[in-house]
Specification:
By secondary structure, the protein is α/β, with parallel strands linked by helices. The chain has a domain at 4-181 and 224-247: Rossmann fold (3-Layer(aba) Sandwich). Helix content is 40%, strand content 16%. The protein is built from ten helices and 13 strands.
Amino acid sequence: MQKTAIVCGAGGFIGGHLVNRLKSEGYWVRGVDLKYNEYGNNHADDFVQGDLRDPRVCESLFDRHIDEVYQLAADMGGAGYIFTGEHDADVMHNSATINLNMVHLATRFGVKKIFYSSSACMYPEYNQMDPDNPKCAEDSAYPAAPDSEYGWEKLFSERLYLAYQRNYNIQVRIARFHNIFGPAGTWTGGKEKAPAAVCRKVAAAPAGGSIEIWGDGKQTRSFLYIDECLDGIRKLVDSDFCGPVNIGSDEMVTINQLAEIAMKVGKKQLGINHIPGPQGVRGRNSDNELIKSKLGWAPSWPLEKGIALTYAWIAEQIKLQEREAEVAQ
């Protein structure tokens, strides 16, 4: 019998790609989001344009038997959105309301499994002050001290899903994402994350010019290409392990090094101007020992491979914008 799934946040970057992945595996997929995917990842069998903060919208999704729910919908963005403090109340209210609605109704309607996308942002800030030695093993989550309200909401929702698993026997799968990137995602406008922002800046810069980086550029991160993220999601959901577990690369780079990789891919030599701006923690890197132990798998793509694919896509988006601007004149 054909498996059925709901993807919440299907209009977003990871959600749109996940719909395609599930379809390729033979699922019947219902996507739901406030908006359609702006880059054409709209291949769900059924798409509900609706607000998951509204329990009536959520309830309407279960008009047929659903085997699995993938809950990726959230109020989120890159550092320029999460760390300014200007969106804290909306981030916490909107995301928590969606999670409360979806786990309750999935339980009520007899869904077998529900996947929840948490984030590395829930790890304690005190373990991420040293850019060279961040501690992000799954068991380091407590005592809790995330560096943002976004991270606090993610931690609350992890506990919410695990409580429903204990009390109502729904099978929960929780992944802590570490900076997922790739084509067909937000690349401009303020909500984009570092790989997309850096690729855009490099692609748009004239030869011999320069780009701007927030802070000193010595803050460290790891970045995971979307295809490997999807591999991790599917391996987790198909396993007997509930998590939480990191899904991320353990190839740690500084933001300056990320910019240098983008310049290498784009065949440009550019200067870097370091300017004030939100940065988040000084260091973060995925610890992959648990996922190797429990799933026998971990991401393996080198960062440059994913940046090359992402850079090419963003460079094409810039050209499309330029052509549209010329036509409009």
